[in-house]
Write a structure and sequence with these properties.
Number of strands of chain A: 11
Largest sheet of chain A: 6 strands, parallel
CATH topology of the largest domain in chain A: Rossmann fold
Number of helices of chain A: 12
Largest interface: A-B, 39 and 39 residues
Strand order of the largest sheet of chain A: 7-8-6-9-10-11
CATH architecture of the largest domain in chain A: 3-Layer(aba) Sandwich
CATH superfamily of the largest domain in chain A: P-loop containing nucleotide triphosphate hydrolases
Strand content of chain A: 15-25%
Oligomer: homodimer
Helix content of chain A: 25-40%
Chain lengths: 332, 332
């Protein structure tokens, strides 16, 4: 899967900014790929790009219309159809991370087929995967892991990629979820592969590379999340990570979606991830903590970061507030 | 999925006894469901049942033809087609654990549809699964886990079920793999579900039950197998096991399919399974070791079992040679 850029980001009639968080992520991390945003009447989101129609954006180079909006049920809204069909007519491919597949809407599938356009349903890997083999590969790998779901694993991997590139290091973000795939232009939704192939998918996603090249791999879930830990473990084994960054949201009172489940301590989460990671890479170690302090005022955030550093003996940063520089330093 | 019994076991033209190991398992564990075997010319396997044709077996009560034979590629051989079509005509459903799906062979799918017969492709779960929620359920659960793949997890769970039933305990074997599903008449191939739903599949498979009821859950893979550990962890979390039985093959020199990977020690494998199992059931503990000593002479087997008991402080049995009585005792 290789999605062509530049992109035109489609925001539909997003009810609020959060509904456009996929477009937000793409605009934040790949602004150089985004020529504009396309909003329908009633759209309440804005990702800070020029409002362009399909024709103008195509003229400006856009080659893929990216559905950057989520709605209830993850459906392709009937109100979007005329825009999507016109996009195909004008020469665009379409990429979507929604639950409903573009390719299962006969009108879209047929038009794309006729015109030779591609429809990317990034939530659904359509690969013939192999089971993982655990064989060591060349190159270096960093995987973001977490105490819980949705605590900054994609953000952290992207922030590290940006920092490494700023230092002229060889680095590639490797996406394992919908938004990440749209940001990277490719990847594998590892939680959507057949269970036997989780580790194999991670191996495929991060192939052998030059000795000084870093893959920055987007983690998923948590070894301590009762719903998704299998995905996290398969990804950890397949990633063969040299370095792990532990992502953490310090104000959370229970595991996401599981009101009765408490969070693990950072110490036990670090220990278990290192232990399991060493099955496929004996030098696997947690090199730092990425703390999402968005819910805290700055002074409180600073205090929490210091406490975590004192408790773990590792670098702790909020990559959003402070960037990922100290995490990259910690690799040295 | 509920496969109707009695069964007629189809052995095709099995090249040797090993090629009929699925039929062997069904005949061993559910002889009361098996009215006979159906062998084609050239078949070199024999599972010890009467050789019956389709008409005679149907008269004797058989309602499902079970494809109990594996071949290269897991295909439905063209030479089987006339038998399979005749079976449908005569009133049989058909069940298969092969890679190729019965339902994807148009001639079979169409005939089954016309006649109202069922085709069971037990390797492919066709369920709308939910993600796991980790909520505690009533009843007791025992899961077989392992140091490696293919070391006796299905056999051990079935031997414990048999022992419990002999003691008039409430017990049900819960199948998670193809052969197990044919033996149980139902189940979920957990390694074939979408990765997000591994724990959810295990929860679905082992629903709430009476306080004195035991589910005996067939484990898969190993937390220490670089290819499949994600499946093992999701199953462990979803199973919410009160008791684990660690299955082990003491003569293995490397992990199955991974020539460079050594086996974990029993001690570390016990510790990690207990630690992870306690995420969803704080009282989860390994209650014994099931050792597959098939490769050893009896005196050597006895010595190995004693050594393992000394090292781990747990009951160690070969369930094939000695039955599962001491494992059931260890639950008390």
């Amino acid at each position: 899967m290789q999605i062509k850029h530049p992109y035109l980001l489609f925001l539909g009639e997003a009810a609020d900014q959060l509904a456009a968080k996929t477009a937000d992520g793409v605009a934040r991390w790949r602004s150089e790929w985004c020529v504009g945003q396309l909003r329908l009447a009633g759209c309440c989101a804005d990702v800070g790009l020029a409002d362009l129609d399909l024709a103008t954006a195509y003229g400006a180079g856009a080659r893929t219309l990216v559905l950057g909006v989520a709605n209830r049920g993850g459906i392709i809204s009937p109100q979007w159809m005329s825009t999507l069909l016109e996009a195909l007519d004008r020469g665009y491919d379409i990429a979507s991370g929604l639950h409903t597949r573009l390719r299962q809407i006969p009108e879209l599938a047929q038009r794309a087929e006729e015109l030779g356009r591609e429809l990317f349903d990034v939530r659904y890997p359509d690969l013939d995967l192999a089971v993982g083999n655990g064989e060591r590969r060349g190159g270096k790998r960093l995987l973001t892991v977490g105490t819980d779901c949705s605590c900054g694993k994609m953000f952290t991997a992207l922030a590290i990629e940006r920092e490494m590139k700023a230092r002229s290091m060889l680095a590639d973000f490797r996406a394992t979820g919908q938004t990440g795939i749209l940001i990277a232009g490719g990847g594998i939704s590892v939680d959507a592969v057949i269970a036997d192939f989780i580790a194999g998918a991670a191996e495929r996603l991060t192939p052998t590379a030059d000795a000084d090249h870093w893959d920055l791999i987007e983690g998923q879930g948590s070894l301590f999340h009762a719903s998704y830990a299998g995905v996290s473990l398969g990804l950890l084994h397949g990633a063969q990570a040299d370095a792990l960054v532990m992502c953490h949201e310090p104000t959370r009172t229970h595991m996401r979606g599981l009101p009765d489940a408490t969070l693990p301590s950072l110490t036990e989460c670090i220990a278990l991830n290192q232990q399991c990671g060493r099955l496929t890479n004996p030098s696997c170690r947690v090199i730092g903590i990425s703390v999402n302090t968005a819910a805290l005022v700055e002074s409180e955030a600073g205090r929490v970061l210091q406490e975590i550093e004192d408790d773990t003996g590792l670098v702790a940063v909020d990559a959003y507030r402070n960037g990922a520089g100290r995490l990259v330093d910690a690799l040295g």
